[in-house]
Specification:
The strands form 2 sheets. Strands 3-2-5 form a 3-stranded antiparallel β-sheet. Strands 1-4 form a two-stranded antiparallel sheet. It has 2 helices and 5 strands. With 92 residues, it is α+β, with helices and mostly antiparallel strands. It is globular. 25% of the residues lie in helices and 21% in strands. The structure holds zinc ion (ZN). Zinc ion binds next to loops.
Amino acid sequence: MSHALAFWAVDAKAGEPDLWVCMSCLSEVYRRKVPMPHCPTCHGVSTFEAFTLDAIRDWGTDELIAKADAAAAERELEPLQAPGPSEVHAAE
Ligand SMILES: [Zn+2]
């Protein structure tokens, strides 16, 4: 597993599906990104479509649902950007 995957970042508006599932092998799912140049499992190109977690739970395999759960949980782990400027010093 030394080969790092590269991804396209995919923007999603609030409330829009942001979990990208490979419709060819149905075993890869990523949140707000798709692997490039192709799916690492089936090597399919442009096979990813966006779904909500609820939709995936509806029709996905147990394995896919587990991966979708993990991908969706990433949003809770993402560090929030501190809004304040960091270059301001309190004292000279
Ligand atoms: Zn695939």
